[in-house]
Amino acid sequence: MTDRKHLADVRARIDAVDQQVLELVNERGRLAQEVARIKREHGEQGDFYRPEREQEVLRRIESLNTGPLSDEVVTRLFREVMSACLALQEPLKVGFLGPEGTFTQAAALKQFGHGVQLQPLTTIDAIFREVEAGDMHYGVVPVENSTEGVVNHTLDCFLTSPLQVVGEVELRIQQNLASRETELQAIRRVYSHQQGLAQCRGWLDSRLPGVERVPVDSTGEAARLAAMEEGAAAVASDAAIDMYGLGALAEGIEDISGNTTRFLVIGRQSPPPTGDDKTSLVVSRSDRPGGLVSLLEPLARHDINMTRLDARPSRQGVWEYAFFIDLLGHADDAQVSAALAEMREQASLLRVLGSYPRAAR
């Protein structure tokens, strides 16, 4: 068989596989519609997005994957398939910290795929309000960065909001310097979110010393401003740079490689256990010696791993603090439930903010 004939045969087989893939994807869509019909007949309205079920599917797909496509690529493909099928059941409206082109939008797409209706909102408070009011099904908010720590604004919103955490997303962050200008020497002002500026402090100090740094609400907003202003630049994402027609003066300017931001998905009800979950809670107690140690002791005694502890003013008195805790496990797990019951006996406040599947890597 000649190489040309062999190539033609392989392409014919690819065409046949493409047809099979198309037929199977549409069959999956029809099955998703059947699921929606059954749920509606049983009065299950507004319960089509099931993060625990999606996590179960993705883990199963990864376990079955034999390559040559990587687990990451396969997961991304199936996330989009599930997103498209979910849109056939009920189009989801998801709020994120806008404008378009922010890392929060990228996190929302990683979690939900392109089959949802994404709505940019101007502040983290606005995301909470829109989800609380029912105008958005879910919201995506940043909560911590591996370089710069927690996003205090998000934690403060949880102190007064009834919303629950229903999922988490981890996103590798690459910061770029972009501008209408073509030379670094022309830059007189740099815009970005305060976290973006902090993540690139060393690079900016060495390459743009003395240049004004202006914090704004988001990296997307920074790119928009840089596109309008002579002598301005933005520390922003690839998506924001493309969206506002900027040129990249430098790529990957974050000071620490592997820089990652964690985002939380907020909604009205946390999902049931998946076997690989996290729980977030906020606790406080009267100020006395050893108070925090005794409050946390049940976690150690029940062999529960605490992965994060942050303190914020409780807004209930001067020098009174609330502690935000992340731990491994679901609030319905026996060990976690027992530990939380013991903590409640000592706490002046203990509220579970949500139990949810751990972020897919």
UniProtKB/TrEMBL annotation:
One GO term (biological process): chorismate metabolic process
Keywords of the record: Amino-acid biosynthesis, Aromatic amino acid biosynthesis, Coiled coil, Cytoplasm, Isomerase, Lyase, Multifunctional enzyme, Phenylalanine biosynthesis
Swiss-Prot/TrEMBL site (Essential for prephenate dehydratase activity) positions: 261
Domain (ACT): residue spans on this chain: 280-357
Any one Pfam family match given in the protein's UniProt record, by short name: CM_2
GO cellular component, one term: cytoplasm
PROSITE patterns registered for this protein in UniProt: ACT (PS51671), CHORISMATE_MUT_2 (PS51168), PREPHENATE_DEHYDR_1 (PS00857), PREPHENATE_DEHYDR_3 (PS51171)
Reaction(s) catalysed by this chain's protein: chorismate = prephenate; prephenate + H(+) = 3-phenylpyruvate + CO2 + H2O
Enzyme Commission code(s) on record: 4.2.1.51, 5.4.99.5
Molecular function per GO: chorismate mutase activity; prephenate dehydratase activity
CDD domains: ACT_CM-PDT, PBP2_PDT_1
Coiled-coil region list: 7-41
Domain Chorismate mutase span(s) in chain numbering: 1-93
Lyase listed as a keyword: yes
Keyword Lipid biosynthesis in annotation: no
Domain Prephenate dehydratase: 93-268
InterPro entries xref list: ACT-like_dom_sf, ACT_dom, Chor_mutase/pphenate_deHydtase, Chorismate_II_sf, CM_dom_sf, CM_II_prokaryot, G/b/e-P-prot_chorismate_mutase, Preph_deHydtase
Associated pathway: Amino-acid biosynthesis; L-phenylalanine biosynthesis; phenylpyruvate from prephenate: step 1/1; Metabolic intermediate biosynthesis; prephenate biosynthesis; prephenate from chorismate: step 1/1
Cellular compartments annotated: Cytoplasm
Role according to the record: Catalyzes the Claisen rearrangement of chorismate to prephenate and the decarboxylation/dehydration of prephenate to phenylpyruvate.
NCBIfam families attached to this UniProt entry: CM_P2, PRK11898.1
Protein name per Swiss-Prot or TrEMBL: Bifunctional chorismate mutase/prephenate dehydratase
Organism: Aquisalimonas asiatica
